[in-house]
Design brief:
single chain; alpha+beta; five-stranded antiparallel sheet; four-stranded antiparallel sheet; 9 strands
Length: 135
Amino acid sequence: MAYNNLNMLTVSKFTIKKMATCRECGADIYGRSDKLFCGDSCRNAFNNSKRSSSDRETARINRILCKNRNILESVINQGKKCCNRELLLSMGFNFNYATSFMIKEGGKIVVSCYNFCYVNSSNGRVYISQKNILK
């Protein structure tokens, strides 16, 4: 292997022209003109770093929503349709996260967490119901 002064690599009788530099590590890339990375490891590292912060935040929020949903489901499965707000908090429920909100007549706010809904009352009680999902 020998390099000449024209950014070309000579291997035995074949000459391979340098096309670009790797987006991740900056190494010279030889071969196809549309290559962006020198190998799979650089391509993976580049794409992982590009997506990592938003993916981590989405995963964090989804974990909270799933935990809230599971808590609501466990209360419903115990046969309760109403419980104290403090009970939900003690189970790890986070009232700052929900999948949707709806304002009913009379100004009541119905909060949804996936297929469960709840309404906070002024006396510290939370009324829970499960949405009917038609198949």
